[in-house]
Specification:
With 242 residues, this protein is α/β, with parallel strands linked by helices. It has helices spanning 3-25, 43-52, 62-71, 90-96, 106-122, 151-162, 182-203, 218-223, 233-236; strands spanning 33-37, 56-59, 78-81, 99-103, 132-139, 149-150, 167-173, 209-211, 228-231. Strands 1, 2, 3, 4, 5, 6, 7, 8 and 9 form a nine-stranded parallel sheet that branches. Strand 4 (99-103), helix 5 and strand 5 (132-139) form a beta-alpha-beta unit. Bound molecules: pyridoxal-5'-phosphate (PLP).
């Protein structure tokens, strides 16, 4: 089997899982976007997946992402920053990405907003890149080491970010801890969905995106309303050691 055929087969497998979970939930499969979480995968591999029809790429490391974007510049894909975000990396992220899933502090959001506009002014040929779509990462299981805003501070952060120019606040992202069994896995996703509804209601927002679900809990996430799943291992295979 060629690399292209393998990519095609893997992509079909994951899209079928999404479709089946969507049907079980009574949802339209098209409402769920597949993001290929490409960390520690060779560029060549990623290229094959984009050729096979992968439209959204998720990156955790800014430098690795910029190299991938340059190497794959001839191909069309949307780029999602899904890693932890330090303030000294916000300029590159504001310039190079279409989505950021991991905003968890106001200071980071402010920098992204400022740096998105200066990029826009510098580069009038890419007016389509404004505004930057952002998601707030919520620390849904109280595990601060993974990043994410504590649930107790989420509402205030929503209100602050919604007011920033050059950003479109689209919703929430979560990275729950691993749980056994689909019923257990659904709980943090259900809680996140409820928080999104509450924030929309409280502040008159129209957030429409829930970035929830990875290889091990894709089905549970789709059953609870996920609109973006971030899949690494079950799409690309095991990660290469760094
Ligand atoms: C690596 C990663 C994923 C994908 O994880 P898999 O279990 O390999 O599917 C999803 N989201 C984030 C933020 C990641 O870092």
């Amino acid at each position: 089997m060629s690399d292209n055929e393998y990519a095609q087969r893997q992509l079909t497998k994951v899209l079928t899982r999404i479709e089946q979970a969507a049907l079980q939930a009574g949802r339209a499969p098209d409402d769920i976007t597949l993001i290929g979480a490409a960390k520690q995968q060779p560029l060549l591999t990623l290229g094959h997946y984009i050729d096979a029809g992968l439209k959204h790429v998720g990156e955790n490391y800014v430098q690795e992402a910029v190299a991938a974007q340059q190497a794959l510049a001839s191909k069309t894909a949307s780029w999602h920053y899904i890693g932890q975000l330090q303030s000294n990396k916000t300029a590159l992220v504001a310039q190079q990405f279409d989505w950021v899933h991991s905003v968890d502090r106001y200071k980071i959001a402010q920098r992204l907003s400022q740096q998105r506009i200066s990029q826009h002014q510098l580069s009038q040929q890419r007016p389509d890149r404004t505004p930057l779509n952002v998601l707030i990462q919520v620390d849904i299981d109280d595990e601060p080491s993974k990043g994410g805003v504590p649930v107790s501070q989420l509402m205030e952060l929503c209100q602050q970010i919604a007011d920033l120019p050059n950003l479109a606040l689209r919703g929430f992202m979560v990275l729950p801890k691993a749980r056994e069994g689909i019923e257990q896995q659904r709980q943090p996703f259900a809680k996140t969905r409820d928080l999104l509804g509450s924030a929309n209601l409280a502040y008159g927002l129209a957030m429409d995106t829930l970035s929830m679900g990875m290889s091990g809990d894709l089905e549970a996430a789709v059953l609870e309303g996920s609109t973006m799943v971030r899949i690494g291992t079950d799409l690309f295979g095991p990660r290469q050691p760094n």
